[in-house]
Design a protein that fits this description.
The chain is low in regular secondary structure. The chain has 2 helices and no strands.
């Protein structure tokens, strides 16, 4: 049965192969140096029909395999045999306890000596006192300024003071000659 299915499948594959492809115009003349007679028909050459082949193979469903139940051969039950032997051994002599003398106690002692060098006496600590200095006179600076009332009256409409120019020498740090 399986052989028939394999042969049928092989034949189906062999006959279902595609046709050879179209290789050109049927009425076209081979190329030559001169013009020949015109073809009997103008336009596109006629197309070869496409061939479709369908192959159907019917395979019957597989038959269930029959498995015969295995034969059970009866076996005799296992047997157990026990042999029991009793042996009387001779009586051992009664044991006597050995006499062990008392062990002397060991005495251990550890002596540790630490050698320490006697330190030398430290010298006295002397703290130097700073030399007295003569107090200096305080530096005093006078700064002249104007109040808001004085400022508002002194400026013209342009917002620039009338006496615009370098600041007077009365403002700023003191001169090197002394106090002002």
């Amino acid at each position: 049965m399986k052989f028939f299915v394999v042969v049928a499948a092989f034949l189906a594959v062999a006959y279902a192969r595609p046709e050879a492809p179209f290789s050109g115009y049927a009425n076209a003349a081979p190329p030559s140096g001169s013009y020949g007679a015109p073809p009997p028909q103008y336009g596109a050459p006629p197309q070869e029909p496409t061939v479709h082949k369908h192959v159907y193979v019917h395979v019957p469903p597989p038959e269930p395999e029959y498995q015969a139940p295995p034969k059970v051969i009866p076996v005799a039950p296992a047997q157990k045999h026990y042999k029991i032997i009793f042996i009387k051994a001779p009586t051992p002599p009664t044991p006597t306890a050995p006499i062990i003398p008392a062990q002397p106690q060991n005495e251990e002692k550890t002596l540790v000596y630490v050698l320490v060098k006697k330190p030398e006496e430290a010298p006295e600590i002397v703290i130097p006192t700073p030399a007295p200095t003569q107090p200096s006179k305080p530096e005093v600076y006078f700064i002249k300024y104007k109040t808001q009332k004085e400022e508002s009256g002194g400026y013209p409409a342009s917002g620039v003071p009338d006496n615009a120019g370098p600041p007077s020498s009365s403002y700023g740090a003191p001169s090197a000659g002394g106090y002002q």
